[in-house]
C-alpha cells in the first residue's frame, strides 16, 4: 500500500470538519450513512470518523444529488462498481495463481 492510499483510507476525521470540507450538513452526512452510501468508523466514544476517501465519496454523492439522482440509484451504481472491482481482482488473483502453478512469467 502506498503512503498516498494509506493516509486517504485512514478514518480519523470527525463529522464537523467533514461537513465543512463537503459543504453538507451533519444531518445530510448521517442520512447518507443511513442510506448505506458511506460507512464511517466509530471511536470508543461512538463518534463518527471519516477518511479522505469518504470526503471524496460524499462530494460525489452531493454532486449526483444536485443532478437529481436518487440515493437508491447512487447505491445501485456503487454496488455495480464494487462488483466490477471485485470481479477484476478475482480474475487478477486467478491469473496469478495460474501463472504460479504453470510457471508462466510476464515479459
TrEMBL record:
Domain of life: Bacteria
PROSITE patterns associated with the record: HTH_MERR_2
InterPro entries: DNA-bd_dom_put_sf (IPR009061), MerR-type_HTH_dom (IPR000551), MerR_fam (IPR047057)
One MF term in the entry's GO annotations: DNA binding
Domain HTH merR-type stretches: 12-56
Alphabetical UniProt keywords: DNA-binding, Repressor, Transcription, Transcription regulation
Transcription regulation in keyword set: yes
Signal peptide annotation: none
Pfam families attached to this UniProt entry: MerR_1
Gene3D superfamilies according to UniProt: 1.10.1660.10
Name of the protein in question: HTH-type transcriptional regulator TnrA
Native source species: Lentibacillus populi
